[in-house]
Amino acid sequence: MSRPRDPWRLALRRFARNRAALAAALLLLLVAVSALTVQWFSPWGVAEQNLEIARQGPSRAHPFGTDEIGRDLFTRTLHGGRISLAVGLVATLVSLLIGTTWGLIAGWRGGRLDELMMRLVDLLYGLPFLFVVVLLVAWFGQSLLLLFIALGAVQWLTTSRIVRAETRRLRDAEFVLAARSIGVPVPMILVRHLLPNLAGPVLVVATLTVPAVMLEEAFLSFLGLGVQPPMASWGSLAAEGASAINPVDSMWWLIVFPGALFAITLLALNFVGDGLRDAFDPRSSVE
After folding, report:
1. 276: which residues sit within 8 A by CB, 6+ positions away?
2. Within-domain flag for 71
3. Within a domain: residue 107?
4. Residue 33 counted as domain residue
5. pLDDT tens, residue by residue, 212-251
6. Which CATH number do you get for residue 160?
7. pLDDT in tens, 73-105
8. Which domain holds residue 127?
9. Does the model's pTM come out above 0.85?
10. What is the C-alpha separation between 160 and 104, in angstroms, rounded?
11. Which of 20, 46, 68, 271 has a CA between 20 and 30 Å from the CA of residue 31?
């Protein structure tokens, strides 16, 4: 008798066969490692200023050029990736925590509670998310922690719908009915039996939520409501570059290089998300 195959191992094999997704994952790893270790291989400090070399274009010494006060843009761009990636990851974790909990409760309980909870989700879908985030930031003040929470708190709706649908499908499965028949408490069933089976869809949602959150953070930083100096993200660097560009002195490198690295990272995240979606699709061909 053949042994049942591990679905996670099968998904990993499917993902590895997707060359575009695998290349995107390696690119993301390279960007993340470079952002975390930039101070080790860059001869310039993040906040190091030198007015004598201000406003210089790309060169061998400064591959991305320098800004208006003589800071190396290559170092600042890679260092800004830390903030952008951290915002995307932490805010996504916040949204997954809220959305998974909401969807589990709604899908397991069913009935009127499920109907009420999902109607609230439908109502929240009609609100402009960025406007809500702007109001939260303007009301409670600008801080990185609040930015994490605010962005995550408006991104959980899709997760809750997916988790609720999967929970409704699994709650009548044989392994769940067996656990209930022997008296396993409901919280333990949700944590030990349902959550592992929801990990695949939730992981796919997470990879698609990260770029959405990063885009929202960049937009807020462009408006001056996101990451505040002396910290910098790709969004705030692009905003600084846009403000410095004028018809007399067009320092194009200030916006091109942060924007290009940001766009490449977002594109890679979307490729990884598509690859994971295909890898966890039960209709995919197995070996």
Report:
1. 11, 15, 21, 203, 204, 207
2. no
3. yes
4. yes
5. 888 888 888 877 777 777 788 888 888 888 777 776 677 8
6. 1.10.3720.10
7. 999 999 999 989 988 899 899 999 999 999 999
8. 7-39+85-279
9. no
10. 8
11. 68
